[in-house]
Amino acid sequence: QSPALSVKNIATFFGIPLTEENLQLVLERSSFQSMKKNSDKTHGSFGNILFRKGGVSDWKNIFSEDQNEKMDKAFEEQIAGTKLGKKLKYDLYCKA
Fold this sequence. Notes:
Layout: H1 3-14, H2 20-29, H3 32-37, H4 39-43, H5 47-50, H6 65-78, H7 83-87, H8 90-93
Helix pairs in contact: 1-2
């Protein structure tokens, strides 16, 4: 939710000094627009699949109802009760 804070925390964790200039460069290069623009170089033929629109909930246009139900079940069984499951906001972004 806060890319700048996340980058700073990662740099601190790894003991990497981070100037304001470097921070801005990382934020620019890790933006969705930048990753999409360079996806053919970084991800080859999968780039167009991985970096499509940059929004949430587009899965509704791709998943069938059966696939959606399987995903909901797998999430509930394997991730929902974990710290990660609580942070993912699955009910908000992934439930139909």
